[in-house]
């Protein structure tokens, strides 16, 4: 599976509707065996790309969720201190005990080490890398360049297989040039009406083509309002599922339900107050 069209079709079969540029990026990622950095607003479906890719390749998804203060031990490996302590107590006085307790037997794999030691290449998702510190980002460079990691007690551990690496960033801070150079890049934007319609049809059981199109057009209008938190694709799917569950078949036939269920899209008090019934009617009036 190498061509852009083949990748787009395979992703669609797994429930992810990709545009041509994203399919091209994934094609090049596989061809060049390079990490893929996906940047974009929260909620546009960046994480779902990695999940869909793991389904398409029928392989394991290994996820490292980044956060402020994430350190090497949490991401790479830790020693099983309890077992080490028990071993020390059981072999007290043995000269070689230090070599024994710092061996594979006592090593706990964390996501990064696990990803390079699988016999079948997994998809490694390094999620929201922009939330991690600069120091952790620098630590990632060895893995992304050479697909090997260094453990002081064991030495350098090369990859058994090269994982398919997807990094995501919400743009909360600027990533280093060194990290960007090691990755292919794609900006994931909110989907246009046509693609969001197809996403709803693929993911929400019972959503008709006409209702899916109306929902996509309505969401497009909501996103153009001055909101504190613009609804993402996940919110669109929640709203579509709610409308289908309430047996709404045409938005124009249920304006009160449309307004009441906008809580699926609007996630702050300010946004809910901004999108009044009058605003809802105005937006609904633009939906064919």
UniProtKB/TrEMBL annotation:
- Which SUPFAM superfamilies does the record associate with it? P-loop containing nucleoside triphosphate hydrolases (SSF52540)
Superkingdom of the organism of origin: Bacteria
GO MF entries: ATP binding; ATP hydrolysis activity
- Gene3D superfamilies linked to this entry: P-loop containing nucleotide triphosphate hydrolases
Q: Which Pfam families match?
A: AAA_5 (PF07728)
Where would I find the AAA+ ATPase domain in this sequence? 32-194
User: What protein name does the entry list?
Assistant: Dynein-related subfamily AAA family protein
Please name the source species: Bradyrhizobium huanghuaihaiense
